[in-house]
Automatic annotation (TrEMBL), chain B:
Role this protein plays: Component of the F(0) channel, it forms part of the peripheral stalk, linking F(1) to F(0). F(1)F(0) ATP synthase produces ATP from ADP in the presence of a proton or sodium gradient. F-type ATPases consist of two structural domains, F(1) containing the extramembraneous catalytic core and F(0) containing the membrane proton channel, linked together by a central stalk and a peripheral stalk. During catalysis, ATP synthesis in the catalytic domain of F(1) is coupled via a rotary mechanism of the central stalk subunits to proton translocation.
Species: Streptomyces sanglieri
Transmembrane segments: 20-38
Segments forming a coiled coil: 60-101
Subcellular location: Cell membrane
Name of this protein: ATP synthase subunit b
InterPro entries membership: ATP_synth_B-like_membr_sf, ATP_synth_b/b'su_bac/chlpt, ATP_synth_F0_bsu_bac, ATP_synthase_B_chain
Cell membrane listed as a keyword: yes
Keywords from the UniProt entry: ATP synthesis, Cell membrane, CF(0), Coiled coil, Hydrogen ion transport, Ion transport, Membrane, Transmembrane, Transmembrane helix, Transport
Cleavable signal peptide: none
Stated family: Belongs to the ATPase B chain family.
Record's bilayer topology term: Single-pass membrane protein
Listed Pfam families: ATP-synt_B
Self-association and partners: F-type ATPases have 2 components, F(1) - the catalytic core - and F(0) - the membrane proton channel. F(1) has five subunits: alpha(3), beta(3), gamma(1), delta(1), epsilon(1). F(0) has three main subunits: a(1), b(2) and c(10-14). The alpha and beta chains form an alternating ring which encloses part of the gamma chain. F(1) is attached to F(0) by a central stalk formed by the gamma and epsilon chains, while a peripheral stalk is formed by the delta and b chains.
Length: 273, 181
């Protein structure tokens, strides 16, 4: 059996407490995967997170395909569930932030974003997969980039180049001498920081959640020796608690991600202040 | 060699630097989801939601229309009923008036007929009385002349008839009676 910690499940080792074996704690290596095929150096490879990302895509499309392909005025159970999700994003997020008239255009994007992010988060607690795809920065970054491009293009399309620049820098003559400072801060905030935090917020939450789950899961196994069994029980209870908590956090993070995306679009469409 | 160290050497350890292949796959995966949802599935469901909304609102509108119609029919019916009642009252009133008039007329007619009958009776009686009186006069005259003739011994009948004595006598008698009366 390979000794590579990234490819070995925690309970496949004989490493227990009081055996003179150190705690194999989770770390960055828990987020690195040997390619299923291809070569990690050549940048042409396929690994577990990609597989999960594509599988998740198939699941989302399959779910909505089954629910909305031939929708009925009197909905079936599946359609009802999908409608509830769709309506939640549409009314609960998009209409709330952008309004019904302006927001309608962005509903498909936001609905896709929400369910995509949620599905990728959900992989964290789905047995066998058990890895949140969004804890790899590339996935949140790709989504945040799409939102960022939309936001910037909307800003300049709506206000023109100068107006768009004013919009992004919070230009307001009444601020007087503080204006240059505000403009610099706002520019950095809008153009550089917000897209970065947009991606990192999701990534870091999922990263931390997965690390916590790993910690308690590995500990449950590691502590199974002598008196440690009692602690292992506590640790296992924590695994259950954290799994439930993650289920909640996954939905919240998907919600926050989409809410922020809507806020950015709203900022782009707003008349400059 | 420790595999961890080996891996660390091969891969950048900074988890904030996105690996390009994952970035690309993530992008592609999202575009697939977005494409399906935006181009086909969400328009589908929007159409149905719109239909449902219309169906519900249409139902409500229909119910409203039915209610309005029922209301108007009820009012119409009530108006007709009131009119009919009014009409009936009017007819009754009219009938009463007519009845009164007819009764009046009939009473007047009865009165008139009664008076006629009475007048006719009176006339009859008068005529009978006159006939009786004239018959009596003749008989009395005849009896008187017969009696006088027997007393005189000759028939005075023709003479009396010729001279009108009896009549004259009786007329005088009547005139006296009239005068007394």
């Amino acid at each position: 059996m390979s000794a590579d910690p990234t490819q070995v499940l925690a309970f496949e080792t004989d490493c227990h407490i009081f055996d003179g074996c150190g705690f194999p704690g989770p770390g960055l290596h828990s987020f690195l995967f040997e390619p299923i095929f291809g070569d990690a150096d050549s940048n042409i490879y396929f690994n577990k997170t990609m597989l999960l990302a594509l599988l998740g895509t198939v699941i989302i499309v399959g779910f909505f395909w089954a629910a909305f392909r031939k929708p009925k005025v009197v909905p079936g159970k599946l359609q009802m569930v999908a409608e509830a999700g769709y309506d939640f994003v549409r009314r609960g997020i998009v209409y709330e932030t952008l309004g019904k008239r302006e927001g309608e255009k962005y509903v498909p994007l936001m609905v896709s974003l929400f369910f995509f992010v949620w599905m990728m988060n959900l992989w964290s607690i789905i047995p066998l997969a058990q890895f949140p795809v969004t804890s790899i920065i590339a996935y949140p970054a790709a989504l945040a980039l799409i939102v960022y491009v939309l936001w910037m293009s909307l800003t300049f399309k709506k206000h023109g180049f100068v107006g768009g620049f004013k919009n992004l820098t919070g230009y307001d003559k009444s601020l007087g001498p503080v204006l240059p400072l505000i403009m610099v801060i706002e520019f950095f905030s809008n153009v550089l920081v917000r897209p970065f935090t947009h991606a990192v917020r999701l990534f870091a939450n999922m990263f931390a959640g997965h690390t916590l789950l790993l910690l308690f899961t590995i500990a449950s196994w590691y502590l199974l020796n002598g008196i440690g069994i009692a602690y292992a029980g506590v640790s296992f209870v924590m695994v259950i608690v954290m799994t439930a908590f993650e289920l909640f956090i996954q939905a919240v993070q998907a919600y926050v991600f989409v809410l922020l995306a809507c806020t950015f679009v709203q900022g782009a469409l707003a008349e400059h202040h | 060699m420790n595999p961890l160290v080996q891996l660390a050497a091969e891969k950048p350890e900074n988890p904030l630097i996105p690996p390009i292949p994952e970035l690309v796959i993530g992008f592609i995966a999202f575009v697939i989801v977005f494409g399906f949802l935006a181009k086909k599935l969400l328009p589908n469901i929007n159409k149905v939601l719109e239909e449902r909304r219309e169906a519900i609102e249409g139902g409500i509108e229909k119910a409203d229309a039915a209610q309005t119609e029922a209301q108007s029919v009820l009012e119409q019916y009530k108006a007709q009923l009131a009119e009919a009642r009014h009409e009936a009252a009017r007819l009754r009133q009219e009938a009463q008036e007519q009845g009164a008039v007819i009764l009046q007329e009939m009473r007047a007619e009865g009165q008139r007929q009664r008076e006629e009958i009475i007048a006719a009776g009176h006339a009859q009686i008068e005529a009978d009385r006159k006939a009786a009186a004239s018959a009596l006069r003749q008989d009395v005259g005849k009896l008187a002349t017969d009696l006088a003739g027997k007393l005189v011994g000759e028939s005075l009948e023709d003479h009396a008839r010729q001279s009108g004595t009896v009549d004259r006598f009786l007329d005088e008698l009547e005139a006296k009676a009239e005068a007394v009366r």
